[in-house]
Design goal:
Structural class: alpha/beta
Number of helices: 11
Order of helices and strands: EHEHEHHEHEEHEHEEHHEEHH
Shape: globular
Number of strands: 11
Low-confidence stretches: 337-343
Strand order of the largest sheet: 3-2-1-4-11-10
């Protein structure tokens, strides 16, 4: 089937690889006939894992890679030395056009480095950001950047806003998505030097729907569709989201088990509560795409289970079908030169 979206999966990367990675790949192809998965890693190990599943054989192919990049390894050195690692081989499948996308729960650093030096940046993109979808009261928002560029400049954040707008409009179907910059107050004059310099640039950007500053407490309410920040702030927001979510779920479950009455009530509300909690489960949105590259690179949590791997693979379908990389290329190629305030 020539219409398949082809996804290279670093099957050896992550805390739960290869078992959960293989399971996620199987679930993805059993759910969609639009995707073909290339599982990259130790061939014997992967084939043994696959033997326990029923799946469409033509939609999964094993690609042998003899090495594994561990999370603790220095990213640049690992990419250079381990040419036959599952991570590097998978990225090269995207570079040479065999695959449309790459998914990994492995080393974030190696994926970020490999994405730029192997897959390559779109011409004009200064810094590719990691951009996960996060749940909100109104649906979801794109948090950009959450981990790739800790020391960003104003021009980088302007590009983040533009790339994020393209993603939310064409992947999530939100027309004219609202863009906000993370700040410590709503007033334009507030914020650190980076925010103060970036704010007027975003305000005067004609091709985005900039709504101004967004405080962290307003993000879960869905105040903005595209939440712009540099990676240090974005990563803190993401990890806080995850931590608060897990704590709330734990506390709700504990509260329901405190008495006979609460246990009876729990039985009544369980179906509705399960649906509500699922809406705030980060796993359902898949991984974080690294926007601004020539091909799609998706990074999932190191602790990803099969469900998140599956959703990360499936999100590659819409991204590829909507030609997001081409749309970002067009958006960046036609942008006006961003002039940053002088110190």
């Amino acid at each position: 089937m020539s219409e398949w979206v082809k996804v290279a999966v670093d099957a050896m990367g992550g805390d739960n690889a290869p078992a959960e990675t293989v399971k996620g790949a199987v679930e993805a192809v059993n759910e969609s006939n639009k995707v073909k998965v290339y599982l990259v890693g130790l061939e014997d190990v992967l084939k043994k894992e696959l033997a326990g599943y029923t799946y469409k054989k033509e939609q999964i192919e094993v690609v042998h890679a003899s090495e594994i990049i561990e999370t603790a390894e220095p990213p640049v050195m690992a990419i250079r030395k381990k040419k036959d690692s599952s991570l590097v081989r998978a990225l090269n499948l995207v570079k040479d056009g065999t695959c449309d996308a790459y998914v990994s729960a492995g080393s974030t650093g190696a994926t970020l480095v490999g994405g730029q030096v192997i897959v390559g940046r779109i011409k004009g993109v200064e810094r590719p950001p990691l951009a996960p979808l996060i749940p909100t009261a109104t649906g979801c928002s794109l948090l950009i950047d959450c981990g790739a560029n800790v020391d960003a400049r104003p021009s980088h954040l302007v590009q983040f806003a533009k790339m994020g707008s393209v993603y939310m409009e064409h992947v999530m179907g939100i027309k004219n998505p609202k863009v906000g910059i993370v700040n410590i107050g709503a007033e334009e004059e507030k914020g650190n030097a980076l925010v103060k310099e970036t704010f007027p640039l975003l305000k005067n950007c004609p091709d985005i729907n900039f709504i101004g500053s967004v405080e962290a407490r307003d993000i879960p309410a869905g105040a903005a569709d595209v939440v712009v920040c540099e990676a240090f702030v974005g990563n803190v927001i993401l990890k806080t989201y995850e931590g608060v979510g897990l704590t709330l779920i734990k506390k709700v479950k504990e509260g329901m088990m405190t008495s006979f009455r609460s246990k009876m009530g729990a039985l009544l509300v369980k179906p509705a509560l399960k649906t509500t909690l699922k809406a705030f489960d980060l796993e359902q949105y898949g991984g974080a795409p690294m926007l601004g590259l020539k091909g799609l690179v998706v990074k999932t949590h190191g602790s990803s289970k099969a469900n998140e791997i599956k959703n990360s693979i499936l999100q590659c379908i819409t991204f590829t079908e909507q030609k997001i990389s081409d749309k970002i290329r067009e958006k960046i190629a036609t942008q006006e030169v961003v002039s940053e305030p002088k110190n």
